[in-house]
């Protein structure tokens, strides 16, 4: 189990370091209904991560088991495909980065954050974690790793829980922190939002490149 947790740590960090969801969470925390919408977004974010990883874990568990030292071509092909897709996303992010001096373009739905309700915040958190293409690829990679490891049910639950806590941490920390000390965090959160908005494309491009190369390496090693 320890080896599997080690293998999915980078993937969990890939989900955690997602500027757009963090910016969305911060905007909600700076809105009039901060406590309601922030909590709803966090719950949706966590739920989406759990659902995505669990689904891919169950799907990958049907892969034929084999000796860890033997060739695993099916697993290798899946990892190679996922790695290449992550590299393509990295290229897209890099090419879409704002030019020097230009203001970064953020999703239009962020303009309506002040009027968002709890159900909508919950749904938004779920969509950004479970349906977002980048997170889906990372969840699929984690699911393949977990499902193909031959762990018992209890160990799988623990591994998914560890993955979820790490992946959700960057939304969990500001939301919980705001609930505890709202006034003290307004300034730092606004500054962080501005920096993330400016560097979003570069952060994601580098992150996806590193993870994509790592997954391709694992795929090659499976043959």
Automatic annotation (TrEMBL):
<feature type="transmembrane region" description="Helical">
    <location>
        <begin position="74"/>
        <end position="91"/>
    </location>
</feature>
<feature type="transmembrane region" description="Helical">
    <location>
        <begin position="112"/>
        <end position="131"/>
    </location>
</feature>
<keyword id="KW-0472">Membrane</keyword>
<dbReference type="InterPro" id="IPR021315">
    <property type="entry name" value="Gap/Sap"/>
</dbReference>
<feature type="transmembrane region" description="Helical">
    <location>
        <begin position="156"/>
        <end position="180"/>
    </location>
</feature>
<dbReference type="Pfam" id="PF11139">
    <property type="entry name" value="SfLAP"/>
</dbReference>
<keyword id="KW-1133">Transmembrane helix</keyword>
<feature type="transmembrane region" description="Helical">
    <location>
        <begin position="42"/>
        <end position="62"/>
    </location>
</feature>
<keyword id="KW-0812">Transmembrane</keyword>
<feature type="transmembrane region" description="Helical">
    <location>
        <begin position="12"/>
        <end position="30"/>
    </location>
</feature>
<feature type="transmembrane region" description="Helical">
    <location>
        <begin position="201"/>
        <end position="220"/>
    </location>
</feature>
<protein>
    <submittedName>
        <fullName>GAP family protein</fullName>
    </submittedName>
</protein>
């Amino acid at each position: 189990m320890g080896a599997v947790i080690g293998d999915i740590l980078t993937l969990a960090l890939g989900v955690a370091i997602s500027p757009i969801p963090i910016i969305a969470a911060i905007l909600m925390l700076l809105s009039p209904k901060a406590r309601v919408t922030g909590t709803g977004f966090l719950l949706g974010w966590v739920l989406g991560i759990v659902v995505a990883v669990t689904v891919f874990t169950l799907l990958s568990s049907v892969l034929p088991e084999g000796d860890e030292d033997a060739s695993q071509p099916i697993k290798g092909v899946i990892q190679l495909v996922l790695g290449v897709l992550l590299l393509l996303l990295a290229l897209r992010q890099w090419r879409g980065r704002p030019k020097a001096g230009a203001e970064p373009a953020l999703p239009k739905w962020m303009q309506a954050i002040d009027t968002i309700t709890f159900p909508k915040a919950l749904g938004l958190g779920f969509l950004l974690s479970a349906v977002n293409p980048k997170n889906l690829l990372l969840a699929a990679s984690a699911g393949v790793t977990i499902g193909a490891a031959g762990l018992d049910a209890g160990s799988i639950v623990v591994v998914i829980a560890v993955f979820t806590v790490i992946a959700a941490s960057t939304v969990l920390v500001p939301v919980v922190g705001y609930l505890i000390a709202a006034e003290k965090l307004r300034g730092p959160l606004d500054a962080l939002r501005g920096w993330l908005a400016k560097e979003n494309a570069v952060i994601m491009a580098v992150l996806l490149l590193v993870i994509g190369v790592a997954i391709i390496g694992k795929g090659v090693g499976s043959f």
